[in-house]
Amino acid sequence: MLKPDDLDASWFQTALTPQYSGVRVSGAEITKVDEWTNTHVRMKLSFDEAAGAPERVFVKLPPRNVSKARAMGSARMGALEARFYQRLAPVIDLRVPTPHAAIIEEDGGFAIVIEDLRDSGCVPYNAIGVSPDAAAGALEDLAKMHVRYEDPGQRTGNEVSWIAAPAPRRAPDPQRPEKPNVGQILLRRGIDQARDQLNDAYVTVAEFWIDHVAELQALWWDAPHTVIQGDAHPGNLFDDHGRVGFLDWGIISLGDPMRDASYFICLALDTEVRRAHQRELLRHYLDVRRSLGGREIGWDDAWNRHRIHAAYTVPASCQALAVPEDATPNAKKFSALFLQRAVAAVEDLDAPNAIGAFPP
């Protein structure tokens, strides 16, 4: 799999030529490397002939840790995101980083060369809450994508035919109990260790998810499908002078459009802002869908689905329950905010009753 040291002028020459005909790359300098879920590399390029190619780019590569890279490769998350930038990013009306190159390797490796958002004056949301006006705009943008692809006949072309629905989980077999997955292990450990930070609603949903993954997955996906981003939490959002942009498309899939709307509302807004504006924002999303000729979703159904999908914030926040001691202050702040918003949303929206999970 590609590593930062592989990103020399020759590599960029090959990678950029398909989009920038006539480009001649003379140099490639690494300016910063960060290790997150993947490896993030900021680069400065020089040219004998730029042909419109940018001087600064952001490159996303597999993690340098071999075991993590293999796990990521088997999950194909990087390949999914690369394919998003190859095929879908150029045609949808969403603010996403401008793609310059996207490469998928046979072993699950990948390289995604995109706009360096810092050069564009964009700011990551992370611990910043999205304003109601910006949230309304983001929901409009999501609605456009959702409506565009909700007809199965629109999902047969090159744009999105590669996007699949999540594989259904099998009901548990008492004769062959499954080993807990990483999410279940993290969530169990987290609710045991951080119980004083959690409310009863959060713990109830967590216990239900740990014991009934297949049933809850089926409930989340029990709706007509369209293309969804699937992970619109604040760490995957950025502000472009008032417009919300969307990052990290590694779990793009077919699913219930209310997953995107609810997850965004629950986690992207500060808790008090969500409480004050979630109903009007959800109505705005439904109105935009209607104006675009989308499938009708009635208010009662939408509100119920919002409550059901609020439960997803619990497994989504499992890593925020167990932040490593050596994590950066920014990572700790982000995790604490992520968890606080999830805990509040699950209780406010009575998610346990919405999903049929009741305390013993």
Q: Considering DSSP H and I runs of 4 or more, what fraction of the residues is helical? A: 40-55%
Radius of gyration: 21 Å
Strand residue percentage: 15-25%
Count up the helices.
Answer: 13
Structural class: alpha+beta
Give me the strand/helix succession: HEEEHHEEEHHHHEEEEHHHHHH
**Main sheet attributes: strand count, strand direction, barrel closure:** 5 strands, antiparallel
Give the low-pLDDT segments: none
* Amino- and carboxy-terminal Cα gap: 48 Å
The outline comes out as globular
Q: Work out the number of β strands.
A: 10
Mean pLDDT: 92
Strands ordered across the widest β-sheet: 1-2-3-5-4
Quaternary structure of the protein: single chain
Plain-language structure description:
Helices cover 42% and strands 16% of the residues. By secondary structure, the chain is of the alpha+beta class. A five-stranded antiparallel beta sheet has the order 1-2-3-5-4, with helices on both faces. Strands 6-8-9 form a three-stranded antiparallel beta sheet. Strand 4 (99-104) and strand 5 form a beta hairpin. Helix 8 (257-268) packs antiparallel against helix 9 (271-291) and helix 8 (257-268) crosses helix 10. The protein is globular and about 65 Å long. The model has no long low-confidence stretch (mean pLDDT 92).
